[in-house]
């Protein structure tokens, strides 16, 4: 859909044919040390989210066919997972996430994992009823012991606060194990709502006073005394299964979720019936936001992170109550606008699509799919790119890279040809990121070996059009982490790269067509979430996870503009920046589900100062749009700090924004219908008096 252009406005290509499918979140774990959330999806993908400020997706470990992650756990900065393949895996989250070590556990498929509070022991529950205990010492995983075998699978497990006892949930029972001798201390049976149907304990939590909380398939929340092995309380929470629990240690409350997509909160408090000082769990309030089963929850401070069948990551907070939804989108960049041919490349999990964009003032002629490319063996596509002239397409999986030539016939797209380029240099290997130069004659591939190498290829002129390897850029000297943001200037002279360790490096092309480091920008305390190069200028706009935004001229070595942006969607990071080609001092920002327009400059600075002087006394005037923080985080003296911000439009499930022409902006959105039509029917509860 293309919106009409008003005076002083631009046409907006509202791309809504990006038909992403929902990918359920099956388990998650929060690392308190680094404030990072790890979550696994049903296709085996593991996502690492940075939650220190506004949440953003930092790294992704691709999944694949037949890969099933059933549990995640952090031990400091170390991440562990278990799967139905019966393996315990420790992940190396360095430059390129990879398997650090893999251990086969006793008992076939592994269903659950937990790490003790002192991060000394790790336990894995298996299908065969075995509990494998490992010791975490000196960055190693050492076998400790196997606890006594029980009948049936171990569905869930949780260490107590001392690390000496382990609580497990299985069919019809909750058990307390003494890890020091490997024997069961208590077995608490749950009972059955139907004598022919076993009760499955889906989740357990242990509180600081050794009170045990369990959630089971009867929809009951059961409270046990861990010392005595007796039932203290029972609460009927739902008529369907309860699947997950989370604990807020500071507020002494429990979060409960399950098939019914409502999170219920139970607070522990004194009641008038208990005069001896004992406390009871009381249902406090509910949180809503999911549409289907809630499968996993993790609490940290005032925030609760939950996920489930609908694939959305829900971040809720209390006092004040906020609900922030992150839809199951793919890692950026997942769409690429091809300006010369008015095409757009869309990346899916295991295939690519190329669609047409409407000509100016002719909205009915766009939105036609002209090409679809499936990956070899349906492997997960890590990255993909398309040249500006539409002639070249490159994509990479974990094991395969493909360079394709696309002869696009604009008049008759059905007669277009797609050919695989076979005579490629050996350096054209698997990568985690790819960029074409704007003139379509250069290609950057970011190597997956972990050495930080960027391979540059050039296309020879003439009829042969062969790609030759020209240079291996040793970017690892200045970038200690993997590159998650990159851009090539419109003049094909500069390459800018940023990593999650807050390093931003500018590479310059010399007269001999060699790339060398030109400058490293001043490092900020937090990682960048988006940046953009201004066409025809040497200015770089960078946004960070705390909504810090600056514009830096790397030719003059000066900050042009620096501020903290007070955005309306404060719980979302700034995920995209695009310089407005019609105004030198204007930016278009992507902030969660909103498209924002930001104007700065000397005239804006003067206008805002005059407004402040007319409205408030200089000594006591409050912050104006948060903009008096202009020099925070390395802003140079004399840089502009004032700005005007307005919302252009709301765009739910916004994926990316990019300029197509001087007066045409492309906003790519995930199709809302495709995210729900493939889901099973949601839980339905009969309301009294309604059909």
UniProtKB/TrEMBL annotation:
<protein>
    <submittedName>
        <fullName>WD_REPEATS_REGION domain-containing protein</fullName>
    </submittedName>
</protein>
<dbReference type="InterPro" id="IPR036322">
    <property type="entry name" value="WD40_repeat_dom_sf"/>
</dbReference>
<dbReference type="InterPro" id="IPR001680">
    <property type="entry name" value="WD40_rpt"/>
</dbReference>
<feature type="domain" description="Anaphase-promoting complex subunit 4-like WD40">
    <location>
        <begin position="119"/>
        <end position="194"/>
    </location>
</feature>
<dbReference type="GO" id="GO:0032040">
    <property type="term" value="C:small-subunit processome"/>
</dbReference>
<dbReference type="GO" id="GO:0003723">
    <property type="term" value="F:RNA binding"/>
</dbReference>
<dbReference type="InterPro" id="IPR024977">
    <property type="entry name" value="Apc4-like_WD40_dom"/>
</dbReference>
<dbReference type="Pfam" id="PF12894">
    <property type="entry name" value="ANAPC4_WD40"/>
</dbReference>
<dbReference type="GO" id="GO:0000462">
    <property type="term" value="P:maturation of SSU-rRNA from tricistronic rRNA transcript (SSU-rRNA, 5.8S rRNA, LSU-rRNA)"/>
</dbReference>
<dbReference type="InterPro" id="IPR015943">
    <property type="entry name" value="WD40/YVTN_repeat-like_dom_sf"/>
</dbReference>
<dbReference type="GO" id="GO:0030686">
    <property type="term" value="C:90S preribosome"/>
</dbReference>
<dbReference type="GO" id="GO:0034455">
    <property type="term" value="C:t-UTP complex"/>
</dbReference>
<dbReference type="InterPro" id="IPR046351">
    <property type="entry name" value="UTP4"/>
</dbReference>
């Amino acid at each position: 859909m293309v919106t009409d252009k008003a005076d002083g406005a631009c046409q907006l290509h509202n791309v809504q044919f990006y038909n992403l499918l929902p990918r359920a979140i099956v388990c998650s774990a929060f690392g308190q040390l680094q404030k990072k959330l790890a979550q696994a999806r049903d296709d085996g993908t593991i996502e690492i989210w940075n939650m220190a400020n506004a949440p953003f997706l930092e790294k992704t470990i691709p999944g694949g066919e037949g890969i099933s992650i059933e549990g995640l756990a952090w031990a400091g900065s170390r991440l562990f997972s278990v799967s139905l393949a019966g393996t315990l895996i420790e992940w190396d989250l360095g430059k390129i996430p990879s398997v650090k070590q893999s251990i086969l556990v006793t008992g076939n498929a592994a269903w659950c994992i937990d790490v003790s509070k002192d991060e000394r022991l790790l336990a894995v529950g298996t299908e065969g009823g075995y509990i494998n205990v490992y010791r975490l010492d000196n960055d190693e995983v050492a076998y400790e012991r196997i606890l006594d075998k029980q009948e049936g699978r171990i569905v869930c497990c949780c260490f107590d606060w001392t690390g000496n006892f382990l609580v497990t949930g299985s069919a019809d029972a909750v058990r307390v194990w003494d890890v020091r001798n490997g024997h069961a201390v208590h077995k608490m049976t749950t009972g059955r709502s139907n004598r022919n149907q076993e009760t499955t304990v889906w989740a357990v939590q242990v509180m600081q006073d050794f009170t045990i909380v369990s959630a089971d398939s009867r929809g009951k929340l059961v409270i046990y005394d861990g010392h005595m092995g007796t039932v203290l309380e029972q609460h009927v929470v739902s008529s369907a299964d309860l699947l997950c629990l989370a604990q807020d240690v500071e507020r002494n409350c429990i979060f409960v979720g399950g098939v019914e997509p409502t999170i219920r909160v139970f607070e522990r408090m004194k009641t008038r019936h208990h005069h001896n000082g004992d406390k009871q769990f009381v249902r406090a309030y509910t949180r809503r936001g999911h549409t289907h089963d809630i499968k996993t929850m993790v609490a940290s401070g005032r925030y609760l992170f939950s996920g489930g069948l609908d694939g959305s990551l829900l971040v809720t907070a209390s006092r004040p109550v906020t609900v922030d939804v992150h839809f199951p989108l793919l890692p950026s960049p997942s769409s690429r606008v091809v300006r010369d041919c008015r095409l757009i490349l869309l990346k899916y999990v295991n295939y690519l699509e190329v669609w047409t964009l409407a000509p100016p003032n002719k909205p009915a002629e766009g939105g036609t799919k002209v090409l679809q490319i499936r990956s070899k063996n349906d492997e997960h596509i890590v990255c993909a790119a398309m040249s500006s002239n539409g002639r070249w397409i490159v994509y990479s999986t974990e094991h395969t890279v493909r360079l394709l030539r696309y002869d696009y016939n604009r008049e008759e797209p059905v007669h277009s040809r797609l050919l695989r380029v076979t005579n490629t240099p050996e350096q054209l290997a698997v990568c985690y990121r790819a960029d074409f130069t704007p003139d379509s004659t250069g290609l950057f591939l970011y190597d997956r070996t972990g050495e930080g190498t960027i391979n540059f290829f050039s296309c020879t002129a003439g009829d042969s059009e062969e790609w030759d390897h020209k240079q291996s850029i040793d970017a690892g000297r200045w970038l200690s982490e993997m590159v998650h943001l990159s851009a090539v200037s419109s003049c094909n002279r500069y390459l800018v790269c940023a990593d999650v360790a807050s390093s931003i490096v500018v590479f310059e092309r010399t007269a001999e067509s060699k790339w060398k480091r030109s400058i490293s920008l001043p490092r900020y305390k937090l990682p960048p979430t988006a940046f953009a190069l201004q066409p025809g200028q040497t200015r770089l706009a960078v946004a960070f996870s705390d909504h810090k935004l600056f514009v830096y001229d790397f030719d003059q070595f000066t900050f042009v503009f620096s501020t903290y942006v007070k955005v309306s969607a404060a719980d979302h990071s700034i995920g995209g920046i695009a310089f407005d080609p019609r105004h030198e001092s204007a930016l278009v920002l992507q902030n969660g589900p909103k498209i924002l327009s930001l104007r700065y400059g000397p005239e804006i600075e003067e206008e805002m100062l005059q407004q402040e002087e007319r409205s408030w006394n200089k000594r006591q005037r409050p912050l104006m749009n948060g903009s008096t923080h202009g020099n925070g985080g390395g802003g140079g003296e004399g840089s502009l700090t004032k700005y005007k911000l307005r919302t252009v439009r709301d765009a739910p499930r916004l994926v990316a924004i990019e300029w197509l022409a001087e007066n045409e902006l492309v906003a790519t959105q995930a199709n809302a219908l495709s995210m729900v039509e493939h889901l099973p029917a949601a839980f339905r509860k009969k309301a009294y008096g309604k059909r």
